[in-house]
Amino acid sequence: MRVSRIQAEKNRQTVIDVASRLFREHGFDGIGLKDLMKGAGLTQGAFYKQFVSKEDLVAQASKRAMESASDRWAAATAGNPGDPLAAVTAFYLSMGHREERMDGCPVAALGSDAARQGTEVKASFEAGIKEYLEIIGRLIAAANGKEPDSKAMAILSTMVGALLLSRVVNDHDLAQAFLDAATEQVRDTVTA
After folding, report:
1. CB atoms within 10 A of CB 4
2. Residue 185 banded pLDDT, cuts 50, 70, 90
3. DSSP class of 149
4. H helix intervals, the chain
5. What are the b/e assignments for 157-179, b being 16+ CB within 10 Å?
6. Among 70, 66, 62, which residue's Cα sits nearest to residue 134?
7. Mean pLDDT estimate for the chain
8. How far apart are CA 135 and CA 156, in angstroms?
9. Taking the model in full, what pTM does it have?
């Protein structure tokens, strides 16, 4: 049965959405095309009508994951307009976010995988990281009226590192300690 162009595009977007979540949970190499397509409710044969290669899908899914993460940051800032940087920090450095592998930060979930990918995947991550830095820079300027200079990079590095470390330990108290220490460090970095 032939599908319409509109349905084909909807199917493509569904595959990208599903892949962005499943890659964050399993890694780029941790899930095959058959399971990805099954997760999207499609057959494996439909994949090659939608994408040139798995690498093409990885790049598209990475871009979607980074966009989704930026949207979550925007929602956090909207939820606390009085102190939006604290809102982002509280959301990002939380045990809830630690547990959200499918919908959590793609940099923490896939950063080491992305470093081994081609230029298209790295470009998706780079664009998303630049967006993170822009958001943090604006929030720093709003919080203390100063130019963010390298503070945004230090804050992002601290946040991603703490989230990643919290995810690789079994001890919940140690995981919480990483998140708490990073929260304190972010606060100190902004006021310094």
Report:
1. 8
2. very high
3. T
4. 5-26, 33-39, 47-50, 54-79, 84-92, 95-99, 106-114, 119-144, 151-168, 172-191
5. ebbbebbbbbbeeeeeeebeebb
6. 70
7. 92
8. 10
9. 0.89
- Supply angle C-alpha 37, 40, 41, rounded to 5: 90
Distances (CA, A) of 43 to 28, 86, 102, 120: 19, 44, 22, 25
CA distance 59 to 65: 10
Write out the two tokens for 131.
Answer: 């967006």
Radius of gyration of the chain from its Cα atoms, rounded to whole angstroms: 18
Identify the residue whose tokens are 């993460």: 69
Structural domains of the chain ordered from first start: 54-191 (1.10.357.10)
Share of the chain above pLDDT 90, in %: 77
The CA-atom distances, in angstroms, between 165 and each of 78, 95, 109, 114 are: 28, 12, 11, 18
Q: Is 153 helix (H, G, I), strand (E, B) or coil?
A: helix
Check: CB of residue 122 under 8 Å from CB of residue 153: no
- Predicted confidence at residue 44, as pLDDT, reads 85
Place of tokens 């990483």: 178
